[in-house]
Amino acid sequence: MNMLPASPSLSYKIAVLVFVENSQGDQLLLLRKKAPNLGSWSPLGGKLETGLGESPFECAVRETEEEAGIKVSPSELHLFAMIAEKAYEGESHWLLFLFRCLRRIDHLPSEIDEGRFAFFSRGAMDGLSIPETDRTLLWPIYDRYRDRFVALRADCEPGGPLHHTIEQVC
Asked: Smallest Cα–Cα separation from 118: which of 22, 16, 18, 17?
């Protein structure tokens, strides 16, 4: 019997991230004013409204409109990754659904309570303040699998090295 290693008893949070590009292939990022990821640049996203039975696609559509004022339909989103993060920042486990918006957006959304937006090339992102798990895990996953699908789990236990295991690629 394959036993999972012990990990802290933490709550599970379910969220989506939506990767939006302009016609030049630059990424739309939000400089977050609130936790998690306060002071860091990240893709659009947020937590599922699980009490309402919201699906990951419904959440991605809602968050894209709420944060960036961009109305998309589920058919304009490609689910390219599902990541189970164990003990992120030692505070909770996360189940993340990563979507690529298939429609290119060339206008910069207005600033919101959550933060301000900017477009960045992938190369320019190396110099940005982005969460370490995004730098070492999310963006490489985006670069490699954005047109496919990958499921993986990541061990984010504090004090330990970030490592991940790919469970399926389609």
From this structure: 22
Task: List the domain boundaries for the chain.
Answer: 12-169
Instruction: Give domain 12-169's CATH number out of 3.90.79.10, 3.40.50.620, 3.30.470.10, 3.40.50.720.
Output: 3.90.79.10
The pTM of this model reads: 0.89
In this predicted model, what pLDDT tens digit does every residue of 95-141 receive, in sequence order?
999 999 999 999 999 999 999 999 999 999 999 999 888 998 999 99
Q: DSSP of 24-84, one letter per residue? A: T-PEEEEEESSSSSTT-EE-EEEE--GGGT--HHHHHHHHHHHHH-----GGGEEEEEEEE
Q: With contact defined as beta carbons under 8 Å apart, do 44 and 72 qualify?
A: no
